[in-house]
Amino acid sequence: MAKRPYLVEVDWLSSQIADADNSHIVVIDTRFSLGEPDLGSNQYTAGHIPGAYYLDLNQDLSSPVQAHGGRHPFPDWQQFIAKLNQMGIYSAPPHGPTQIVIYDDSRFAFAARLWWMLRYLGHEQVAILDGGMRAWETAGLPLSVGVPEVEQGDFQARFQPDWTVDIGAVRQRKDNPGVVVIDSRSPERFRGEIEPIDPVAGSIPGAINAFWQQITTETGHLKSVDVLSSHWANLDPTDEIIVYCGSGVTACVNLFALVASGHPMHKLYPGGWSDWCSYLI
């Protein structure tokens, strides 16, 4: 299916959509803008990959913000699973496992969040569209304004609880030998020179910086395995690696890139800097 793990090209996806006998693929649009929360849903309404469903970062992939826990806490998992079922997603034969393809137009920023969530729930058949919506449109492929019908799937979650850590675990383990904490935000935010979103600037003491946008090209395509391997060359896969960002969204891009370059799934600190700094106020 894909040349690299969990990644598909537009020509492959186009051929799958064109195959009328293919009932085991679900496409999900995750376009979103942190600065303009309605933009993604408006873009979806204006035109999307044929047959794609839409999931919104704020409404579907997160739950309401609390005093602590970060700006994008995970959703109520049972409600989220109900949404997956309404897309006709199955976990096992005879109707599954359903192949899921996710796309955005933000260099995997939101697609990777959903990719990680589905993997966390135990669904392996999930990939991101390389280049996203831009690649689809550049290839001259058709768009649709139709909204797919509600289906009935049978998604069976198999949670991976050891894939996440909370603030207590980060505080306790971050300075231990063999533990590496990666901050996925821009270098300026990591250094505390600017902070456009959260009330406090800075980063977790001892963390290193690996900006999430470094793993894709400017056109939103994943860099080669050789480039990614070089990018992560200073990391020992046997170390305990904890990845965070502002609120557990773009950290998933780095986790995706690590897996795509041969690393195991490392740990996510979902609350990120927005959770960490909430205890500094």
From TrEMBL:
Gene3D superfamilies associated with the record: Rhodanese-like domain (3.40.250.10)
All residue ranges annotated as the Rhodanese domain in the record: 21-145, 175-278
Coiled coil feature spans: none
Swiss-Prot/TrEMBL keywords: Repeat, Transferase
Molecular function as annotated in GO: thiosulfate-cyanide sulfurtransferase activity
Name this polypeptide is given: Sulfurtransferase
Organism: Phormidesmis priestleyi
